[in-house]
Amino acid sequence: MSSKRGGFSVRGVREWLEAPAASVAERGGKLNVLRGAVARVTTPLLPDDYLHLANPLWSARELRGRIVDVRKETADSATLVIKPGWGFDFKYQPGQYIGIGVLIDGRWHWRSYSLTCPPNWSDPEAGGKRVISIAVKAMPEGFLSSHLVSGVPVGTVVRLAAPQGGFVLPYPPPEKVLFLTAGSGITPVLAMLRAMDRREMVTDVQHLHSARTAEDVMFGAELRDLHDRHPSFTSHLHLTGEHGKFALSDLDEKFPDWRERHTWACGPAAMLDEIEHHWRDAGIADRLHVERFEIARTAVGEGGTVTFGKSGRTAEADGATSLLEAGESAGVQMPFGCRMGICQTCVVTLSSGYVRDLRNGDEHREGDKVQTCISAAAGDCTLDV
Amino acid sequence: MAITDIQAFSHLTAADIETLGQELDSIRRSVEQSRGERDAKYIRRTIAAQRGLEVAGRAVLFGSRNRWAWLTGTALLSVAKIIENMELGHNVGHGQWDWMNDPEIHSSSWEWDMTGPSSQWRRAHNYSHHTYTNVLGKDEDLGFGILRMTRDEPWRPVHLVQPLANVVLAATFEWGIALHDWSIEKELLGTPPGLMSEPNREFGRKIARQVAKDFLFYPALTGPAFKQTLKANLTANFVRNLWAYAVIFCGHFPDGAEKFTVEQLEGETSGEWYLRQMLGSANFKAGPAMAFMSGNLCYQIEHHLFPDLPSNRYSEIAVRVRELCDKYDLPYTTGSLGKQYLLAFRTIHKLALPDRLLKATADNAPETSSERKFAGITLPSLPSSDTVHWLGIDPETGQRRGLRSAMREAKVVLKEKARQEKEMLREAKRALREKAEHEKDVLREATHALQDRARHEQASLRRKAARRQALWRGRQHRSN
Ligand code: FES
């Protein structure tokens, strides 16, 4: 409260006032002084614990957003336009993804989706307000994606995590670019294309997109339109229903200069594996950027490699070993109490992958908080500890 | 000594205890699977209602110079604080709502409106207390380190002030809990004695914030009503303390909430763990409103069996737990709030006294018993007192004969034994009295005889004297 010399200083008072809202400081700006001051009387709560009862978007414990539009893209995909709540940073980079939590049957489900909009985008259809958009493709057995594509009503409040990820287009973009996408892998690349378009900086860009049929192509019309408007941009469609999978050996014929291009690839894991191989063999792995959406569902099984994010250690664990034991055997300082699932002392956040609750077989995934003493790896996973 | 062997005490076989455990597991699973929108709504509404009550209470207190506004504001604030403490802070802290994946309603982030930091409470309570429920020397909630709540604990002179300590604890309960959790936290973490250790700092910060809020900032906000608002806040905290104290004491210290020794912990199976929770806790009867205000801790038994299942489901879980108690012939300790508290109150006052003034032993007292309680007595339904004969199913009724019957029969047998002993005592007394009577008679006879003799001797003496006198007079006559 006082400066080092022992007297009062405006800055000291201000810091003291802001302290309770410090965790959201970068988002609140000057408002934080007020928030901090109010927090002094609402302690142990923050002012927004009250405010968000009036408006869920005012929560400051976490970002929130409201779905303002759901647009069908294809039979099984849709674009969701979301108005983020207080504190969202619109200065993300094209190609990044956000975390989104949706409430279904009383439980929040958490997934990551690429943003499809350019930074600082305001949608004329959303009244010119700054909004963000993601595109979701319904996956077979993808309980949340199906819900988002066909069941989520406009007005729904969702949880958001700040944009992140290194699959981004630098600014200014490289002279020669190659995009290789398949299925919903087009979404981050679409954001890059839209950003280039908006900044009027479409360099020499070749885009090859694979889909099963013409009806399955997400944003087909927009790609055509971009193609027509920008002579330096070429959009190629590869329909796997007719021609089978695109063979990388055809690259030389289709894009003779592919080795000179900076390539961004996004699609199913198998395709990305293949591409990575090909580029490594050509000795130009540094020109390749890939985005893996999530661990392929087939990787979910019994046990796996557990990575402990903060300590950087790893452990191999089978499907019957608790994450707590796995961590301790790897010499990680794991929090624990009862070791039997009743005290919640051992809860940590699962930053990626899947784990299974040993008591009831429930599966947990990225973003969930899990009790390590009664959970085991269900595939490779990373814990935030 | 408290229970060292829960299997012998419960009169169940190892297999019985295991199937009991499985049945409880299946209750847990069915609740877990059916958690959903309805439950989520319940907690969100509770939160909204609590916040509403608190805001209303604080607002009304701006007019607290008016008597009625003071009363209304204080009442609203008390109720808000009670709900915040019992149904929200305690239950959210237990992870009962973690399944919703909502960061705003999660055990790892919830901070409550009590003196001590939630995180310290969680370690002391969720871990120490709920894992080692009622194990002597392990569960520090047994008397909270100030009260002697079982005669397993040796008496010390300081216990004489127990009745007073109890009152002080009740009035300042949040402080008691805070200090208690703080010391356990430091013990668990093995914090070095330094003044500025992290637990100390955390503790200090929380206290400062809590005290400043209720006793400085809010009163100051209401300006001229400073004093009245201060009093209102004090009162609301006091009311909440009393209620929390009463609920906790009714859940843990009435007769029938058993205590255990560390021996029981060794190699304890999960079925035995369940059984220990069940026998170590006590419920009290409550309607929906009182259940809500107690954070559903009127279902303390269910809470101890499933501390992390949503509180709004305890009432339905209770029905199933009672069925299991019937099936396995186990006691289900419950009673009215008043009765349960009086039982706890009785224990507090009784155990203030040194052991030599107490009649029962730790094996057979109202507040602690053990498997040894059944040793050396012959129960009517059995050919011998050996507990092995109790195991299994009664061939006549098809019922399991378990602890509940054993308790009941032991009570009858012990009463009968006591009656017989009393009878014998009475007989012996009568015999003694008769003997005394007889001896008195003999004594009286002897006295009579002696008296007669004395009288006789007196008479003869008198006669002799008369004769001597006559002789003397005759001699004089003659000399004249
Ligand atoms: S250590 Fe107690 S819940 Fe995991």
UniProtKB/TrEMBL annotation, chain A:
Top-rank lineage group of the source organism: Bacteria
Residues forming the 2Fe-2S ferredoxin-type domain are: 304-385
Q: Which cofactor does it need?
A: FAD
Q: Residues in domain FAD-binding FR-type?
A: 60-170
| Alphabetically ordered keywords of this record | 2Fe-2S, FAD, Flavoprotein, Iron, Iron-sulfur, Metal-binding, Oxidoreductase
Endpoints of the signal sequence: none
One matching Pfam family, short form? Answer: FAD_binding_6
Please give the InterPro entries that the UniProt record associates with this protein. 2Fe-2S_ferredoxin-type, Cbr1-like_FAD-bd_dom, FAD-bd_FR_type, MRET, OxRdtase_FAD/NAD-bd
Keyword Oxidoreductase among UniProt keywords: yes
This one is known as Ferredoxin reductase
TrEMBL record, chain B:
**Which top-level group of life is the source organism from?**
Bacteria
Composition bias (Basic and acidic residues) maps to 427-460
Known InterPro entries for this protein? FA_desaturase_dom, Fatty_acid_desaturase
Domain (Fatty acid desaturase) ranges: 69-334
Instruction: Give me the ranges of the annotated region Disordered.
Output: 427-480
Which PANTHER family does this UniProt record tie to the protein? DELTA(5) FATTY ACID DESATURASE C-RELATED (PTHR19353:SF19), FATTY ACID DESATURASE 2 (PTHR19353)
UniProt protein name: Fatty acid desaturase
Q: Which organism is it from?
A: Nocardia iowensis
